[in-house]
Amino acid sequence: MEKPLNRHVTLWFAFVLMALTSPLQSAERPNILLIVSDDQGYNDLGILGNGILTPALDRLASEGTRLTNFYVAWPACTPSRASLLTGRYPQRNGVYDMIRNEAPDYGLRYSAEEYAVTFERVGGMDEREVMIPSVLKSAGYKSGIFGKWDLGTLKRYLPTSRGFDEFYGFTNTGIDYYTHERYGVPSMVRNLSPTIADKGTYCTYLFQREALRFIDEHATTDPFFLYVPFNAPHNSSALDPEIRSSVQAPEKYKKRYPPVDPETRITPKYRYGTPATVATPDARRRDYRAAVTCMDDAIGTMLDALEQKQILDNTIVIFFSDNGGSGGADNAPLRGHKAQTWEGGIRVPCIVRWPAGGVKAGEVNDAFLSSLELLPSLVAASGAELPKDVVLDGFDWWPTLRGEVSSPREEMFWKRRDLIAARVGKWKWVKMGKSGGLFDLDNDIGEQNDLSQSHPQIQAMLKQRYANWVSEMESAEPRGPFRDY
Q1: What would the 3-class secondary structure string for the chain be?
Q2: Pick from 43, 47, 51: which is nearest to 61 by CA?
Q3: In this predicted model, what pLDDT tens digit does every residue of 379-423 receive, in sequence order?
Q4: Are 339 and 352 in contact (CB under 8 A)?
Q5: What are phi and psi of 40, to 5 degrees?
Q6: How many CB atoms lie within 10 A of CB 415?
Q7: What angle do CA 417, 101, 71 make, to 5 degrees?
Q8: Which one, 212, 353, 430, 449, has least CB within 10 Å?
Q9: Which residues, listed in sequence order, are joined to residue 186 by a DSSP beta bridge?
Q10: Exposure letters 269-295 (e unless 16+ CB within 10 A, then b)
Q11: In whole angstroms, what is the distance from residue 402 CA to residue 435 CA?
Q12: CA-to-CA distance for 398 and 408, rounded, in angstroms?
């Protein structure tokens, strides 16, 4: 298989030539609405026909372009979010594992004093890393984030210390949707200050409220970057097994789906070591869908607000899930789920709407793209400047989304502890514990037919590319919190 160097050079020359006539040159600086769901399945869009109710996301797909070959950089929360905000692999930006405590998995409820010195409390993204809002600030953008942060809880790590102008949300990887506690620890923050002012209100409603306020305040004054990372439809982070074993959702949304009976069951083996009452699989599936539909309604109000302000068509609206689905999710036709390097853990639903930027309505684009492309693409659209002396792992995707050129992305790599994957062109090599193999994704998106025996030279090539990538990541300037330096 030929190295992609010559192809990259050709494509980059094409990008330079097109820049002279690109619609990005003449368009007014676009607003940006980035919406990220949490653990949503690849097949969990109403337009795909699995029965889930997502009219707002369906509208977004009909008015924009749906990406079918879009990846995140890690198969779970924290590193995926670090990469989408920096444009850098987790192994390069330093957040290549979860910033969380494991003890609650075994039923421990931390006291305030215990929690204050745990890694979940003191860990955070390296302060040298540059994120999207810091870069856009140079082009006059106001930035707000309302929802899940998950990149550190100390003041120096919080969003308003990292380029955002406003923050309201929770700082760790998951909460109870009503108490806003993580395993009993209050977790909501406004800017730099903890708050329990909205305790008892379903958090999707709160993130919707803040996003609509932000749009109203900035629609006619400043270009804005609005980042809304919902925690829906992630399972609740509560210690009560019945709550924790499912997704919390308002009753009115549960009633939009067929009734479930029974709602719960007794399991003799639970992670705490004792019998417990937990949600049945049918209830978990229903609750998951209800949480997605509630989130979808919130997204619909944001689109309506932008339309009422007459700024929707020149607002870049991007939606995707932070990683593959879990719990009640549907990842069909992909294999695997969240936390795995099968396609079901890393390939996610993604929709982009921006008519003023030449993104076509009702299109389905199967170009090989990733969340690493966000930062350079938003910089290109906004007129901001790329951060100096920062190695990025993505590129400007607008020519590809407009259908002008093929994607420059030829390869991508993933590493979650001892779970790894490498994709080069249509080929993917996976090592998932004792399982894995070589797969032709053009003809086997479900990774069912292992071709490692019939194509040993292809597998050897992918392994070598992966080894080269590991060497590059290890030689990069080290970043905390995990690297030893």
Answers
A1: CCCCHHHHHHHHHHHHHHHCCCHHHHCCCCEEEEEEECCCCCCCCHHHCCCCCCHHHHHHHHHCEEECCEECCCCCHHHHHHHHHHCCCHHHHCCCCCCCCCHHHHCCCCCHHHHHCCHHHHCECCCCCCCHHHHHHCCCCEEEEEEECCCECCHHHCHHHCCCCEEEEECCCCCCCCCCEECCEECEEECCEECCCCCCCCHHHHHHHHHHHHHHHHCCCCCEEEEEECCCCCCCCCCCHHHHCCCCCCHHHHCCCCCCCCCEEEECCCCCCCCEEEECHHHHHHHHHHHHHHHHHHHHHHHHHHHHCCCCCCEEEEEEECCCCCCCCCCCCCCCCCCCCCHHHHECCEEEECHHHCCCCCEEECCCEEHHHHHHHHHHHHCCCCCCCCCCCCCCCHHHHCCCCCCCCCEEEEEECCEEEEEECCEEEEEECCEEEEEECCCCCCCCCCCCCCCHHHHHHHHHHHHHHHHHHHHCCCCCCCCCC
A2: 47
A3: 999 999 999 999 999 999 999 999 999 999 999 999 999 999 999
A4: no
A5: -85, 135
A6: 23
A7: 45
A8: 449
A9: 181
A10: ebeeeeebebbbeebbbbbbbbbbbbb
A11: 38
A12: 11
Read off the pLDDT band of 470 (50, 70, 90). very high
State what percent of residues in the chain have pLDDT above 90.
89
Task: Establish how many alpha carbons lie within 13 A of residue 8's alpha carbon, considering only the half-sphere containing its beta carbon.
Answer: 10
Token pair 């400043």: residue: 222
Lowest-pLDDT choice from 11-25, 122-136, 312-326: 11-25
Instruction: Report all structural domains of the chain as residue ranges with CATH numbers, in order of start.
Output: 5-409 (3.40.720.10)
**Type of residue numbered 474:** E
What is the β-pairing status of strands 193-194 and 31-37?
Answer: unpaired
Q: Are 15 and 296 in contact (CB under 8 A)?
A: no
State residue 105's pLDDT score: 81
User: Which amino acid, one-letter code, is at 301?
Assistant: T
